[in-house]
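Q: what sequence does this backbone want?
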């Protein structure tokens, strides 16, 4: 199969889970014998065309038309300083579609079987390519504007709706997300669920050296008899990180030898620092407001005693799979549109963590205290988590299921 893959993020530019997904799934497609052409964003310093591990990657160079866009709609007038982001999104889509159609297809005689495009950020190019080349299109939905913001931009919501209606099929990342899309009037018959994955060979606790784990804990001044709670994610309201900070005094009342390490960047950085100070727990919380390379993130998982991801809105959430692959017990938000509840088993012989209400600091604290109350039980939960990853959540399984769905679209 010859696949056009439109992804706003692609290595070396990785911002969140979508970039991780795009990197891994396209390489697995190639391993399965398919041809993949990726179009992604260029920050101005990247090659406009290269091959990365068998994947052909194009990144058109952009220009700046930010001063023009606010003239086009009332909604765009409200974007303020974010209008440059809209500029990059719009030009990336138009230039990508133009280059693929006019250069690769018409001049170089490339041909394709299907175009897959991810979230609103790639919707314009996906729709143009599908209609111009008259090939099937699959819309991959990893999140929605209403979920991320509570309401948000009318333009973005209109693009999501247009892409859903135009696409021949829709893939989303969890049953929680499918239910949410259906509630909002999306065509249920088009929507197929394929979970995301993780690389269990890369995220493997057996490959981490004890001396490196000890050195990392020492970096945060966490002693052997102290508990290390780890949070990794964007520091935004939907991730529940402020609620996690508010939960810490209740955790410390029962487990005073506990510290929290936060890895991530986002608009809530100052808020969570100020909150920890007001709660008088600043000496128990360590922050890394920076991009941490993957090898170091893996070491953080290995050094932790448990991982906590109290999201309020999380269509899937790859971080939980990473923690599970590293044999760590986890506490996750499971109320509302949160895919964590499909990954984490909260009871029974296969239990690997705790479900909590990410909006409730007391419930988060209860979940953490449950894990810390019995270290041997927590260790069993961690082992169960890796077993679950190997059974359901590898990139091989994700790629095979996705290709199977593409094939079903092609024969319609």
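A:
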């Amino acid at each position: 199969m010859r696949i056009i893959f439109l992804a706003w993020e692609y290595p070396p530019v990785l911002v969140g889970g979508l970039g991780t997904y795009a990197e891994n799934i396209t390489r697995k497609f190639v391993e399965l014998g398919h041809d993949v052409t990726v179009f992604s964003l260029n920050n101005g310093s990247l090659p406009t065309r290269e091959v990365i591990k068998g994947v052909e990657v194009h990144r058109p160079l952009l220009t700046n038309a930010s001063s023009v866009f606010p003239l086009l709609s009332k909604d765009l007038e409200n974007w303020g300083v974010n209008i440059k982001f809209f500029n990059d999104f719009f030009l990336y889509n138009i230039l990508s579609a133009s280059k693929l159609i006019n250069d690769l297809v018409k001049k170089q005689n490339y041909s394709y079987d299907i175009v897959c495009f991810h979230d609103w950020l790639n919707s314009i190019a996906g729709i143009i390519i599908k209609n111009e080349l008259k090939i099937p299109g699959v819309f991959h939905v990893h999140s929605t504007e209403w979920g991320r913001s509570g309401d948000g931009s009318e333009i973005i919501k209109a693009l999501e709706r247009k892409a859903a209606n135009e696409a021949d099929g829709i893939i989303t990342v969890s049953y929680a997300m499918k239910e949410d899309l259906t509630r909002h009037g999306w065509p249920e018959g088009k929507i197929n669920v394929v979970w995301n994955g993780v690389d269990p060979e890369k995220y493997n606790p057996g490959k981490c050296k004890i001396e490196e784990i000890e050195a990392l804990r020492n970096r945060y001044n966490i002693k052997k008899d102290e508990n290390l709670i780890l949070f990794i994610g964007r520091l935004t309201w939907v991730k529940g990180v402020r609620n996690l900070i508010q939960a810490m005094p209740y955790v410390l009342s029962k487990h005073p030898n506990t510290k929290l390490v936060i890895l991530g960047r986002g608009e809530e950085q100052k808020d969570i620092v100020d909150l920890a100070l007001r709660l008088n727990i600043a000496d128990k919380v360590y922050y890394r407001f920076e991009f941490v390379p993957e090898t170091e993130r893996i070491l953080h998982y290995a050094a932790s005693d448990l991982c906590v991801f109290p999201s309020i809105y999380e269509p899937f959430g790859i971080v939980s799979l990473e923690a599970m692959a590293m044999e760590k017990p986890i506490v996750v938000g499971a109320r509302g549109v949160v895919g964590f509840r499909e990954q984490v088993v909260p009871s029974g012989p296969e239990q690997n963590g705790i479900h909590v209400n990410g909006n409730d600091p007391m419930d988060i604290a209860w979940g953490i205290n449950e894990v810390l109350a019995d270290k041997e039980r927590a260790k069993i939960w961690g082992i169960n988590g890796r077993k679950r990853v190997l059974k359901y959540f590898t990139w091989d399984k994700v790629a095979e299921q996705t290709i199977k769905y593409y094939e079903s679209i092609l024969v319609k």
